[in-house]
Amino acid sequence: MRIKAIVVAIASFAAFVALGRYVVRAGEPAALVAWERSLTDHSTLVALWLTRICRPPVLVALAVVVVVVAWRFPAWRGRAIFSIVMLLLCWRGADLFQHLFARPRRLDWVMKHELSFSYPSSHAAIATGFFALWAWLLSMSQLPKTTRNVAAAALVVLALAICWSRLALGAHYLTDLIGGALLAVALVSAGVAAVPSAVFGGARVGLGRIGPLMAAADPALAQIERKLDLNVPLSMEDGLALYRTTDIHNLGRLARREKERKSGKKVFYVLNRYINSTNVCFAGCTFCSFAADEFKEPDRVFRMTPDQVFAKAIETGTNFNQIHIVGGHDPRQLSLDYWLPLMRRFKAALPHVQLSLFTAAEIEYMAKRHRLSFPAIVTALKEAGLDNVNGGAAEIFADGTRSKICPNKVSAANWLAIHEELHRQGIASNATMLYGHIESLEDRVDHFIRLRESQERSPGFNAFIPLAFHPDGNELSYCGWTTGLDDLRTFAVARLMLNNFDHIKAYWMIQGLKVCQVALAFGADDMDGTHGSTDEEMIYHAAGTLSGQYVDDREFRRLIEEAGYVPVRRNSTYDEFAWDWSPELVSA
What we know:
The protein is α/β, with parallel strands linked by helices.
């Protein structure tokens, strides 16, 4: 593209010079004089009206319209600013070269204006080039095909009408038009050669700020960037291209740009308590190293009473905003009789704390146990104070893979149905994906698309959390560990595919603090929770994670600031708090 633009610029400018020199030496070509005689008689009011479009005030008004378009539609800022710059270059460039190609006019015109020569007016050419340029830009956009074709055709027709109106006023205008058009083509081509990414979407260009001009090395990323600029949801093919690209830096750039469109420079964290209330589970997931069989492994079993759960939550004080409890399919604990009184107790004693409890798998289990519909079980949990549902149990939605790794767990359809019902009743939730085991890239992208479609049907997902598979102590240990590159790609692809999710969470317990800090440059905007200093996360530690159990909030702020972002304390539903906020104590 750059070489072609340079060639066109040189050829157009050479033709412009040749035409000007010919007119100065020999005057109007005889053929053009014949055109004048045949066209002057056909000058109409319409032609004269179209001529007014070429006047400077109208061109300025057009530029203002383009500025408004650029402000209202960020995706078109680069194209709009580029076209305005080219318009001004052509306009003033024509004035500069008019002195070089001065040409005698008729005696009556000279006597009237007291001039011995005039400058060839190229306003018509510039207006023509302006409309033609926008027709070209429209044809390259990701707008619907019919819209592109109609808009581009309308602009071309307008440009041709301007040409006709100028020709109808005299033959010398044809010379002006040809010369001005050649100059416009030369300057526009030179601009394309100099900043191709401003047209093709590789640059981050905005009003008042022009970022680094950085064209994607992978052509697929350039196509995807144009879709992102127009808020077009990415397809399965786009998602696979994102996973397969070797241009990791531009992948990160795109994800970071989308992250900053969502949350600016903010990166969130929460002061929370994390509790595993039981490890008894009969689901039998092949990827799990945490679950214990009460009859085969009695020495591994633990099960907390409601009093123990409450005491654990406030063991290190009450200055936290979220209680995150994870258990299993434990028949002795997973019932409304156990949880509803405990939830009400938390709400009475800690009104500032949001309850982030359960997964869709546990809710489905309780619904079956108590013979309740999904709406009825959700209503009961909401009345007891449930604020947010954890995103676990999503694993992978693809039926073939899901049937191999978690055959006894909630189906993909029911997982989505439960979360959509939660959202309809005003309860927020998160979503997850377990990656790095036997799933395919197609499974991963399919998972993103199903989540995105669910969010469209029933909005309410706050954040997406990629869960990297850990292999120690489970049946899928042969799959090994995910790599750092796979982790970062997954953060980035999640951010780009899930355009209707506000947040992507980098959970330090899973990928580790160092990878999660880098993930902030790959689309993540949340580092999850501190945990309490005496909390014990057991699910990922049973599977071999080397992460610790607790992160001081000061360390979160340091890591976030070092990455160039602003740390913001939040709760489960992303209400923001000052870093030193503390609750008013309420006696239990």
